[in-house]
Amino acid sequence: MLSLPQMLGNVSQSHVQSPDDWAQSVTGVLRDAAIYHQARNGFYRAQCDALEVDPAAINDVNDLQRLPLLTVGMFKRPDAQVLLTCSLADVETETRSSGTRGVQSVARRNSETMTRALVGLIGTYREFFSLSGGAGLFLNPADAEASEMGLLKDFNILNSVFDHHAYLVADQAFDARAALEHLRRWKGHMTRHIVGPPFLIGRLLRFLEQEKSSARLDPYSMIITLGGWKRHTAEALPAESFWERCHDLLAVRPGNVRDMYGMIESNMLAVECHLHRKHVPPWCYISIRDPGQVGKELAPGRTGTIAVLDALNTSYPGFLLTDDLGDIETGTCGCGRTGQVINVRSRGQSSGLGNCPVSIERYLGSGATANDEAPALVKA
Ligand SMILES: [Zn+2]
After folding, report:
1. In this structure, are residues 123 and 279 in contact, taking their beta carbons and an 8 Å threshold?
2. Interior angle at CA 211, CA 210 and CA 213, nearest 5
3. How far, in Å, from the CA of 273 to the mean position of ligand 1?
4. Coil, strand, or helix at residue 374?
5. How do residues 302-334 score in pLDDT, each as one tens digit?
6. Of 316, 309, 317, 307, whose CA–CA distance to 350 is shortest?
7. Residue 332 Cα to ligand 1 middle (Å)
8. What's the 68 CA to ligand 1 centre distance in angstroms?
9. Structure confidence by residue, pLDDT tens digits, 236-287
């Protein structure tokens, strides 16, 4: 069984635990996280009390489904600071996204959470991409579509594995010509990689096609995507066609086109292996919920609302009910890694109607706990 420091210190090893060890390790780190938040966060404690859950009694991976969840929609509320376990004074970063409906979601992280998340991401990138050097071309969308890219930017981490990088910020018109110029300038000097949401990479591919041009990248070049097609569903390509076009127009091997799944409210980033299966980090657990009854966990293979439990977060409980739909698989992947694999079926499509047993209104209205148990409120 691995502790959180052991997982962060050796990401590779923690991806190849035996299934029993994986279950024990992830249960242990999430139990410790739940105990931490229950002891320090009045709002979370109220949820545990209402559901009669004692985090210390979590013994088995099947017990994890009992932990109370925060819905991602709560992060859009003006009183979202009630979700904090740390004080507002300890908040180091605030990541905002405007989302598709224009309401800002704010994820606040303290320095401990940032450090853990940064270490975890470096380990994850090195594990899955084996990158060391080269040049990264980042295609960044305009703000409204950049929620997950905001996460990347915040964590500014892929940069550190490249020798060189360039950011292209795309407004309404994406400047594919400028992107190509960067790629051509780096040719022969460095292995070239492209990072961005699939819809912007799709536009680069279309531009190449229209210009009857191609830019052959290098044998070990990677295309790393995050964030889906957003409003550009009309341009969306099935994954297989996307890989094929990346191969035809950019000469990037299909196994080197990798998608990732994450959201700004969570530190969890599931990254594809060369077999295009998104591996959940060993310090996270994904629970698939019945959309009509979110307290109920569905069996592996069944599609439902994705809940993400993350052990890294000390700024607020990292136990979130998303509004995405998907399913999970367990067992050993063809790449040799164990643990969970997540298949994301759609983003932002779940009703998101799941509520905490004790609402923010009721919690704040009770007046009993706001002063001594939620220091963030006092400092606000
Ligand atoms: Zn795999």
Report:
1. no
2. 115
3. 5
4. coil
5. 999 999 999 999 999 999 999 999 999 999 999
6. 307
7. 8
8. 30
9. 889 999 999 999 999 999 999 999 999 889 999 999 999 999 999 999 999 9
Q: How far apart are CA 146 and CA 334, in angstroms?
A: 32
Q: Return the SS3 of 58.
A: coil
Per-residue DSSP letter, 306: E
CA atoms of 146 and 153, how far apart (whole Å):
10
Q: Is 32 exposed, middle or buried (0-12, 13-18, 19+ CB in 10 A)?
A: middle
Instruction: Map out the domains of the chain with their CATH numbers.
Output: 4-110+267-379 (3.40.50.12780), 131-261 (3.40.50)
Global pTM? 0.91
Distance 231 CA to ligand 1 centre (A): 29
Q: CA–CA separation, 17 vs 6, rounded Å?
A: 12
Query: Could you tell me which residues come within 8 angstroms of residue 231 by beta carbon, excluding any fewer than 6 positions away?
Result: 100, 145
Could you give the count of Cα atoms lying within 13 Å of 255 in the half-sphere of its Cβ? 9
Amino acid at 294: V
The DSSP secondary structure of 175-220, one letter per residue, reads -HHHHHHHHHHHTTTS-EEEEE-HHHHHHHHHHHHHTT------TT
